């Protein structure tokens, strides 16, 4: 359960702002804003990155952390969550399934997740579209070769501790594989280093995005909470969908305050995208021999994106140089005009 996960973390006093009152747009405002969001999705031509937080899993029965009934909000009052579904029993929400469909149809290019509940994985979303910055209860990682594998059940440890067994790379048809590596849980503790490949992919995709959309997060945890801003210096837009105010509201181009399930349902309806039901046959944690299913981000995927990222940065620098030269020329013209007037 998420409460047990939270209790498994090391003591940490600064858990951010807790229990801020939620706010709701009127139904008319939500419709208008969702229409605007769809327009930006269509104009972005696939350059859309979604950043997900604990708020997208509350309708699955998993409490968030800083909401009015969040784990840490209640902890401060000496209380525990009333509703607390086990990670093993939880199934993807309408938002998880909508994100999978939108990604498959090219409206979303990439998803950056702060969630450790494994619901993106359970939805059947491909790993090539997903960065998991804080880990995944249903993934274990070899301490030697760093390869990741699907678990059949949620890990009972957190903080990258031994969770049983040795590296399974040899069981998936690999000639050369790690010998003797221990499998560790994949869930980060406070102030642990973020997984390098996931962070690299998240940073590059966030920077390249025409539109960054945040769903169900107050953006208080860094560096993940700052990633949606990475496209702003290149003219990108940021859309925040959350019931509570966030630390980056003033920098947002659009804020939608209502339940994320409702937002995704309206967006998919306008785009003509059907939201599929959760199908256990497409859930890697429920598939026979799923424990041999690898979940590692391929090195090649990082290298390919890095090439695109560097090329785009070069393009940005060229554009900025041209803009600077244009501004210098314009300034010179203005000075000359003033001289003539004088």
From TrEMBL:
Protein's recorded name: protein acetyllysine N-acetyltransferase
Domain of life (superkingdom):
Eukaryota
UniProt lists the gene as: SIRT6
The organism's taxonomic lineage, starting at the top: Eukaryota, Metazoa, Ecdysozoa, Arthropoda, Hexapoda
**What's a BP term from Gene Ontology annotated to this protein?**
negative regulation of transcription by RNA polymerase II
Alphabetized UniProt keyword annotations: Metal-binding, NAD, Transferase, Zinc
Any idea of its EC number?
2.3.1.286
Residues engaged in binding Zn(2+): 142, 145, 167, 178
Write out the transmembrane intervals: none
Q: What class of enzyme is it?
A: transferase
What InterPro entries does UniProt report for this protein, alphabetically?
A: DHS-like_NAD/FAD-binding_dom (IPR029035), NAD-dep_sirtuin_deacylases (IPR050134), Sirtuin (IPR003000), Ssirtuin_cat_dom (IPR026590)
Question: GO CC terms for this protein?
Answer: nucleus
Q: Where is the Deacetylase sirtuin-type domain?
A: 27-274
Q: Which GO terms describe its molecular function?
A: histone H3K9 deacetylase activity, NAD-dependent; metal ion binding; NAD+ binding; transcription corepressor activity
Give the family from UniProt.
Belongs to the sirtuin family. Class IV subfamily.
Which catalytic residues are annotated?
Answer: 134
Pfam families named among the record's database cross-references: SIR2
